[in-house]
Structures are given as structure tokens and as C-alpha cells.
TrEMBL record:
InterPro entries: Znf_DskA_TraR. PROSITE patterns: ZF_DKSA_2 (PS51128). It comes from Candidatus Kerfeldbacteria bacterium RIFOXYB2_FULL_38_14. A zinc finger (dksA C4-type) spans 97-121. This is Zinc finger DksA/TraR C4-type domain-containing protein. It comes from the Bacteria. Keywords: Coiled coil, Metal-binding, Zinc, Zinc-finger. Residues 3-30 form a coiled coil. Residues 32-56 are annotated as: Disordered. GO terms for molecular function: zinc ion binding.
Amino acid sequence: MDQKFLAEMKEQLLQEQKELQQELDAVSVKDVGDHVPGSRAPKFPNYGNDALNADDDSPIEVTDFMENVSATGHLGDEMSAVQKALQAITNGTYGICKECGKEIGEERLRANSSAITCIACAQSHQ
């Protein structure tokens, strides 16, 4: 892989990382409990109490929390993949298929910058 392409992909991955961090910050906070270091805890929205449910969480709050749980997990997985791809650039292993060891095509990497398998190997697992 040429250095110009790697620099372009690194820039793209850094931009994705920044955007993912903003999205994660919107739906979660850093988990400060006895959990996995660096993990995120979904935010529980508080829209205020209404007269009928003064001490209870509203159904809307619960629904939005469940959406935050799902989004936190999905975004966290995406962030992990981006961080691994950035590390692979540093290690000199970026763009090498984890299954067959062949080079992943530039077109695939432009479409999915954190891809770890070539198209052939990805299709063989579907």
C-alpha cells in the first residue's frame, strides 16, 4: 500500500473517530463504575416529572434510554474498529486481510475504512 493512500485513510479514520466520539457523547457518558475501563454508560434522560407519574420514570424516558443503550453498544463497536484500524496503520498491518493474508482492495477500504477482511473472505462468511 502506498504512503499517500495510507495517509488519506488515516485522515479519514481520524475524522470518523471524531464524529463517533461526538455521537457517543450525545447518548452516553464515561462509565465510572467497576466496569471495563474506557467503557461507556448510556445516558438516562430525565424530562421532568408529570403530575401523574411524579416518582416514576416516564415511558418516553425508558424508551429513549433503551435507544441509548443500543446506540452506545453500536457506536462503541464502531469506535473500537476505527481505533484498531488506526493502530494497524501504525503497526504496518493496515489493509491486510485477517483471514487470507492478502491485501484488501483500496475500493473496499475507501467504502469501509476499518475493514479487516477482503471482499472474498467477507462474502465467504455470509
